[in-house]
């Protein structure tokens, strides 16, 4: 309710009460459905670039990680703890890239035709694939650290059983972290389009999403990798061995693969 003062030509004034609450409360609800649809990549550039990008990442990721899975399975008789982590890292990437065809179609037509359950399921797989990839990268980093810096102390503990327990724990953790995506994802119908999105108006989800993505998925893994590799690389460089130098190059490549995609974020 707002008091509005009106000035008449004869110099007199009058105060009138106007209630604008209904106008503001219904502004978003009364917005045309095309407004909501335009808000999510209906621009010509986005509807072409994003589906193309998602498709390329899917093809390269599926073939590359599928090859890793096949190689590890083929040589499973000589599997080590590192191989188990690498195998699960490839599986994590596969889970992630398998969601991309759905998002490629979604961004191309700006419409989600797969239903409510698939919206929640694909969103959960997307988050689970991302977080499990990050967590397995951290696990491989810690494994490299203890092997190089404390080889004699941990040799007895780097067993296949330890690898299975570690992998199972990481998958369970990733699913727990991704569960809110299943809870808060939903399909919103705007008449001429349906969008698969999270509940942006839920403050709990927004706070959790920021924490999980930035702290669990970026800051903590980054700190672990920087600290570990800052200790590992000088140790390897001091060793006069071509094999050790190749290990340094491999480590730098792994760090680059982890950090470069985060640049645009």
TrEMBL record:
GO cellular component, one term: external side of plasma membrane
Family matches, as Gene3D superfamilies: Rhodopsin 7-helix transmembrane proteins
Ranges where the G-protein coupled receptors family 1 profile domain occurs: 64-265
InterPro entries in UniProt: CCR1-9-like, Chemokine_rcpt, GPCR_Rhodpsn, GPCR_Rhodpsn_7TM
Gene Ontology molecular function, alphabetical: C-C chemokine binding; C-C chemokine receptor activity
Entry-linked PROSITE patterns: G_PROTEIN_RECEP_F1_1, G_PROTEIN_RECEP_F1_2
Name of the featured protein: G-protein coupled receptors family 1 profile domain-containing protein
Annotated source species: Pleuronectes platessa
């Amino acid at each position: 309710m707002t008091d509005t003062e009106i000035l008449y030509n004869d110099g007199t004034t009058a105060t009138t009460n106007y209630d604008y609450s209904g106008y503001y409360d219904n502004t978003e609800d009364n917005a045309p459905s095309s407004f909501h649809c335009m808000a999510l990549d209906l621009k010509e550039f986005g509807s072409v670039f994003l589906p193309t990008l998602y498709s390329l990442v899917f093809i390269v990721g599926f073939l590359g990680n599928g090859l890793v899975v096949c190689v590890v399975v083929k040589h499973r008789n000589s599997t080590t703890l590192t191989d188990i982590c690498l195998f699960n890292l490839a599986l994590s990437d596969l889970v992630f890239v398998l969601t991309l065809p759905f998002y490629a179609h979604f961004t191309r037509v700006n419409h989600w035709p797969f239903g409510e359950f698939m919206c929640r399921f694909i969103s959960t797989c997307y988050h689970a694939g991302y977080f499990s990839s990050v967590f397995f990268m951290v696990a491989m980093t810690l494994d490299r650290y203890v092997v190089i810096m404390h080889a004699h102390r941990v040799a007895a503990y780097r067993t296949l059983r330890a690898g299975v327990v570690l992998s199972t724990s990481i998958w369970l953790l990733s699913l727990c972290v991704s569960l809110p995506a299943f809870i808060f994802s939903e399909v919103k119908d705007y008449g001429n389009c349906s969008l698969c999105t999270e509940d942006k108006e839920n403050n709990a989800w927004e706070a959790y999403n920021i924490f999980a993505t930035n702290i669990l998925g970026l800051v903590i893994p980054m700190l672990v990798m920087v600290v570990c590799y800052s200790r590992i690389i000088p140790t390897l460089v001091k060793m006069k061995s071509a094999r050790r130098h190749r290990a340094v190059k491999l480590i730098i490549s792994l760090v680059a693969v982890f950090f470069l995609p985060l640049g645009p974020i």
